[in-house]
Amino acid sequence: MLAKLVAVAALTGAYFRPTQCLDALSWVLSPVVGLDELAASAHSALFVRLVLTLVAFATAVARTRSTYLTFIAVLVCLQTACLQLHLQGETYAVLPWSKPVQLVFFEILATLTFTLVLTVGYFAPLPLSPRQVYRKRLEDFYKTHNPAKLGQVDDILRRYRHHEEVLFTRLKKKYITNDLSESEEGSDDEHETSTDDEPAAAPTRATAIHIETTVEDDVEDVQEPSTPPASANQGRADTAPRVRTAIQEVQAAQQARIEERIQRLKMGKAKA
């Protein structure tokens, strides 16, 4: 932080007094690079200020990317206009000052805008990474709907890495739209990995196996003693339609219970 403040102060001083800055650089770098001709040029001050403006602008854009681009562009345009007014040396009747005061005013205003661009480049907050954005969104969501989950934010994001939008979709269903199909199963959506669909399908398969076994047992019980036992493949072929029918009946009953609970909730809210 201190180093950044020193850098901003040094660059601001160089912009406000470009001739002295160029003389100092010429004295320091004279053994390596000859800057005498540039220092003696009539446009040396303008050259130094343009270079410093480009440095400040590039630093600000590189740090903030497109976040503050409009603000930075406005500052640079204002700085360029003030510098142009200072270099032209014209007076404006609108301003109640003498010509020297107006020139100093434009120079100070250009320096202030340059300092603002530098401040953005050195002190503006860095853009958040996608993972940081998702983390902030999840923290804000849990602060509103379930503060007890705040300590598990990192673990939940790790489970849903690269599938964060799926996580937020499930959370909205659970906490905002009160999806009863989720609460019926008693599952906590944010603890299920989005890429693993097997656990969700496991209850259905287990139910199908249980129904199939039950139906097969019933079929075996009603067979006449004189009838030879059917082969396993034949038995499965005969009971397959019954299994599908039983599964459909179970799913229809579950859907009916869900709709019944929805109606009860709506009636309760209407009475309240």
UniProtKB/TrEMBL annotation:
Spans through the membrane: 45-62, 69-88, 108-128
Compositional bias, Acidic residues, is annotated for: 181-199, 214-223
Specify where the region named Disordered lies, as residue ranges: 179-245
Write down what this protein is called: Transmembrane protein
Entry keywords, A to Z: Membrane, Transmembrane, Transmembrane helix
Q: Which domain of life is it from?
A: Eukaryota
What organism is the protein native to? Achlya hypogyna (Oomycete)
